[in-house]
Amino acid sequence: xxxxxxxxxxxxxxxxxxxxxxxxxxxxxxxxxxxxxxxxxxxxxxxxxxxxxxxxxxxxxxxxxxxxxxxxxxxxxxxxxxxxxxxxxxxxxxxxxxxxxxxxxxxxxxxxxxxxxxxxxxxxxxxxxxxxxxxxxxxxxxxxxxxxxxxxxxxxxxxxxxxxxxxxxxxxxxxxxxxxxxxxxxxxxxxxxxxxxxxxxxxxxxxxxxxxxxxxxxxxxxxxxxxxxxxxxxxxxxxxxxxxxxxxxxxxxxxxxxxxxxxxxxxxxxxxxxxxxxxxxxxxxxxxx
Length: 289
Fold this sequence. Notes:
Blueprint: H1 15-25, E1 32-36, E2 42-44, E3 50-52, H2 53-67, E4 85-86, E5 92-93, H3 99-102, H4 104-111, E6 117-120, E7 126-131, E8 139-143, H5 144-149, H6 151-154, E9 155-157, H7 182-212, E10 218-226, E11 237-245, E12 261-263, E13 270-272, E14 278-282
């Protein structure tokens, strides 16, 4: 008798059913994109040359990380897979699909996928599978300090937010908020105070984890879009919650579900936007169990 992982009669199924199964199997899994902040501008050193401000910080960080290495960990495991860095959300690099090697039928379905795209070289080889970032399934991950330092890149005043807007006249035309407008800036500052309070509440939920961990846990913020009832993008909610990522490891060690902050909607002054930046791709098998 066949084991639960084997099904020797698959080829006897109707062709339409086999194709439907291949199509379901061809849907790629969600990914986490880890935000990489822009590099700091180089500054002149004492010798008159230039050096990157981030180099010294990077060196110190690496030395601290190496000193915290878990003696029980295998250093070879950390370098098993190379890091995948992307700078275009329309081309999120994917692992090479197994369906391209299963049989001709599965390969044809994979090549005709409306989701996954390939680069085809002059020899007809199908290379570099990639797809467009999907905000409803994929996740943006930002280091807590990076988010605090680049908030303007991630947040916009919600165009649907009206309570304060109706009370404060603007000195620009149109309904869109602009940071150059002092009235808009006032609204921004008011909501920023509220958001900072919420983030500090989330931060305290993880303070015990940082103290109890043998190695200092890096706190990251996850952003994931949620479907809203309104057709307007500003009413679509974005969930914001924190996770722990331990140094020297390329996987999320722990993903709790604390109370999340929601951005967007008519009762929130902020809406979330995805900045144009570089991202490191974290695949599903790197996620916690």
